[in-house]
């Protein structure tokens, strides 16, 4: 497991390289391409993207945690729900902190305003593009669910890719925003899973 942790941490330079490449090479062309798509495709992804909202997962996992603590006492199940809640909450806090620090302009600020790139310590919705909060949430959820329900891990992964990609299709984020958001979500969920407080209960549950 130490090797797995080291591998995830060591992948950060690769992710940062992908972000830099996106900023200078592929972010704007992809944004322009998807801006020209209309109709049913956009409507589909506008619907799918709601699966990246953190509120749903926080409320459901929080209520189930309380249920397994006070109504149907099951320590192991309660801790599993707390793990899911923590994965979403902690990754979201990290993503929001980075958003504020980096202050990246969103795609809709590029045309017609011509605003592109990073202006550190940005405020307002227009400067909260990096990283994608939806990508962070859905990837944290997908990793946590893959840990809790491994038989369905391919489904969780597919949903994560679909939802994260929707942020680019509907013009809410640049592709590199999604890449970093996915990394933050997965890494956070992985590190929490490695914490013995969660790991023991999850492993005991099979």
Radius of gyration of CA atoms, rounded to a whole number: 18 Å
Q: Please mark out the parts with pLDDT under 50 across 5 or more consecutive residues, or reply none.
A: none
Helix content: over 70%
Cα separation of the termini: 17 Å
Average pLDDT number: 93
Helix/strand-derived class?
mainly alpha
Element string (H = helix, E = strand): HHHHHHHHH
Principal-axes shape call = globular
Strand content: under 5%
* Tally of individual helices: 9
Number of strands: 0
Largest sheet: none
How does this structure look, described?
The chain is mainly α. The protein is built from nine helices and no strands. The chain has helices at 2-10, 12-35, 40-48, 54-71, 75-102, 133-148, 153-169, 175-194, 196-205. The radius of gyration is 18 Å and the shape is globular.
